[in-house]
């Protein structure tokens, strides 16, 4: 059953109870009467309603009624008079506000038609003249009230919730966002909006059919609902597009922590009809500012940030670049935090091995940055790299990672762990630095690491976004003897001109293709094409994200010569990966 995201809580969509044929329809009725002597006769009439068995609970005041109704479990309210704390209409209003889902039937005295009509106008579903009712009329009125309330609730639900997922729809999201933007200045806080788009969802519909696509969307909705706190809104606004609304935001971290939680929620495969599906999402984050007070503008900014996340390789979040009122202080905090982390040893470099398929020979280790934050714990780069990029600290951190990985590689060489390469990811800001080639040269000299043991990984987006400066830098790095790899190949522009015009040595096939290798003919064909293309150009091909022996065998048959992934080892700290190296050495034949 799909959960509906509602304001203040997450509730399951109510379904009517199923009763056996001829079984009594059991109802719990709250009779709200003061000192009216007719209360006993009304109770007796309820007990005589055909086809019902009823529990009648009596409340003698409006306050008493509200307290009893707060505990839930009632199907309808019968509202009489003689109340010590208000008239019947007052009771209708109070009960309607406190428990709007409960139907109300007002009981009026002889000639009280005007009061009955007023009660209906103020929220009751029906009214009856107590002097004229019998069990049949009372039963009819209660049934009508219950069904009318259900119909009203259904209409409200249809107008505000997505029928497939049970999440809020576009209309309700806009309504809540506008309200949140209006309330934010009163609380001296901000509003955050996230715009999510599933990566490559269209291929699911094309290859598996729309039923599989719908089932996947329902599971995505459930995971997203688990990522937010009570009172926060998740909506599906169309197709495979979702939005999240956060209120009470005071720091950029308040939003980015949730964004990272959403990214992490997609790590486990989805089970659709007994078949595993790997799916990721790209997330754009926008924070309200004094000059941003409309829902349309907030969503537009979050949407732009989401598309930037896709251009940067997908499966990540990006923050809207137009955040002058909140990001300035937070970016300053980020700069200070990164400087402190560098000085205090909170940053660490972990490693994941790459091996040759044919003989299992170790050919490399990819260096992966981790941050053991004192408050947030161990964080992956997807969580903090965007903030480092915005704060301008990414170049300093990138140099530290590069030097750390190079010194570690030199240690492994000296200790006889093997003659392989260490691969380090390069940021766009590093690649734009005119002195980057000199920096690499200086670090090679300082660490004593041979250039042939260093590999630098770039993304396709870097090559297209920084084409005017990239060519010269890559040629300079090649001149040093450093190997160059194109990371996540196939997720960006995948233009052959990059492979022809740039000195690329290695293609790394993105893990999203490997995840679908056994189940998607299209993904299988793409991987086959990349392997064939790479081999014809004399490039080394590395398949990322290999997790099963079945994937390994298919890649071997395709002619892919190198793999990386959890089948070999998850990323580990240097001391732990050395244990992996020791175990590997111990099991190798002499």
CATH fold-level topology of the largest domain: TIM Barrel
- Biggest sheet statistics: 8 strands, mixed, barrel
Round the Cα radius of gyration to an integer and report it.
32 Å
Helix content: 40-55%
Quote the beta fraction.
Answer: 15-25%
Q: Regarding CATH, which class of the largest domain?
A: Alpha Beta
CATH structural architecture of the largest domain: Alpha-Beta Barrel
Unreliably modeled segments: 1-24, 323-332
Derived structural class: alpha/beta
CATH superfamily label of the largest domain: EAL domain
Q: Any idea what the shape is?
A: elongated
Determine the N-to-C terminus distance: 58 Å
Q: Reading side by side through the largest sheet, how are the strands ordered?
A: 15-16-18-19-20-21-22-23
Mean pLDDT: 82
Our count of helices gives 22
Number of domains: 3
In total, the number of strands is: 24
Q: If you had to describe this structure to a student in words, what would you say it looks like?
A:
With 590 residues, the chain is α/β, with parallel strands linked by helices. The protein has 3 domains: 25-159, Rossmann fold (3-Layer(aba) Sandwich), CATH 3.40.50; 170-325, 2-Layer Sandwich (Alpha-Beta Plaits), CATH 3.30.70; 334-584, EAL domain (TIM Barrel). It contains 22 helices and 24 strands. Strands 15-16-18-19-20-21-22-23 form an 8-stranded mixed beta barrel, surrounded by 4 helices. The chain is elongated.
